[in-house]
Amino acid sequence: MAWYGMMNCTIYHNLGAHGELLCKDDATPKPSVKKFTNIVGSLMFLCNTRLDIQFVVSMVSSYMNDPSIMHLKATK
Question: Residues 6 or more apart from 1 whose CB is under 8 A from it?
């Protein structure tokens, strides 16, 4: 995950906060769509062996057309 700047990230055991909602347009700046799709694609590949992340990855992948900074933070 060095490609995505996550070498010093904090490990969370709770993958998705209960009741956390992501909205489609939250008026925050837009990150690079290519970077977001690369991260989500890597996570989709990882879903083959880590079934516990499948729901969260499918949730963030629905925003691949127009991601915001909030979606990128949720993905990381």
Answer: 7, 9
